[in-house]
């Protein structure tokens, strides 16, 4: 039995991680801002950390951010909070960290050009997006490119405040592991969905936005042409990945894993699946775009299968069927 401090234990993912740990007989100490405990508060950590074997760090400011006014808050909660946590772990001799990271550390997904092989397309220009040209192009010859699953060795390219702070958390955790001999595992979540997902806010992911719209009797508004690809992974699968990360890994290093379903779908397909389950209204494809959105990102689940023995169990059709009527938070 492991004693785990779960940060963000009252949140969408954290609460289901805590439940999965308890279901496996582990002891969970919950830390959450909602009950007045801040991960940036050293006194809170000094109270909760003694005796813990592992910290499962889910607490974070999430989403995309609204504008640069959000930068200090992202940096404070995600970067400073993790730094305070790691320093306290070192002092209390807690030698294992499981970190909730994100696929957003990669930026745009991986692409192959017929002439130039593996390439990293530049962010799409507003001129291209404006005229409905949504597909990234080869940065060398401008030709169309084919997207491929991204693996953990892909270069990182964080493109917003949230992404930047998630990558910073990984770097800080790697520093901690190196200096203390601790074992750090970063779980790069793809698009997590499922029961208790927070409702539509400026910080919500697309699955929650569509689900909230349908509940209100409004049509999901699908941006671009709906052909953007994501890997939607169910929150209970994500929770199981956290359980799997309690063991293994290499002392002194951070190992990163994609946590995905391995079953990519387009945003248009996701909207259609949810709308069908609820009996409408039908999604509308609007051609709107958000500058900075990536077009396709899908994951290779290979390394997590080998290193963690993790494999998603809840398929797209089954998961979306449940999510269509599951309670939101
Ligand atoms: C999302 C999360 C990110 C998280 C990542 C991996 C947000 C805002 N983004 O990134 O924090 O790390 O998953 O879990 O929480 N779209 C529509 N209609 C809408 C809103 C969005 O079609 O009403 C489209 C977007 O244009 C985009 C796609 O849906 O192409 C996904 O959007 P979103 O879920 O917001 O962001 P991700 O980049 O997938």
Automatic annotation (TrEMBL):
Coiled coil spans: none
Domain of life according to the entry: Bacteria
Residue stretches making up the NAD-dependent epimerase/dehydratase domain: 4-111, 151-260
InterPro entries: Epimerase_deHydtase, Lipid_A_modif_metabolic_enz, NAD(P)-bd_dom_sf
Pfam family, one: Epimerase
Gene3D superfamilies: NAD(P)-binding Rossmann-like Domain (3.40.50.720)
Cross-referenced SUPFAM superfamilies: NAD(P)-binding Rossmann-fold domains
Protein name per Swiss-Prot or TrEMBL: NAD-dependent epimerase/dehydratase family protein
